[in-house]
């Protein structure tokens, strides 16, 4: 699995005082596993309209706070705001927005 390649090196090089960097390093393999699951699942279910609306609201929240001090909101915060579990949020966000939440956050900072 490509997401696991070099994971131990990335975790070792990530400064323990930077929780956002550690979270990003931990999310990569989880997102990769979700992608593999989605690709190989014969009857992948599309997100509900309610979930799509929740993700859209979370994306708007990211956009409005992209340049504020304090950095990007964590996965747990975004999932909580959307009323979804972190794993379901990751899957639905990617499905609705076409990219991961971390990629979306990074794109909004530029």
UniProtKB/TrEMBL annotation:
Q: Where is the HTH araC/xylS-type domain?
A: 56-110
Top-rank taxon, per record? Bacteria
Q: Which UniProt keywords apply?
A: Transcription, Transcription regulation
Q: Which PROSITE patterns does the annotation name?
A: HTH_ARAC_FAMILY_2
User: One GO molecular function term?
Assistant: sequence-specific DNA binding
Q: What InterPro entries does the entry give?
A: Homeodomain-like_sf, HTH_AraC
Q: What protein does this entry describe?
A: HTH araC/xylS-type domain-containing protein
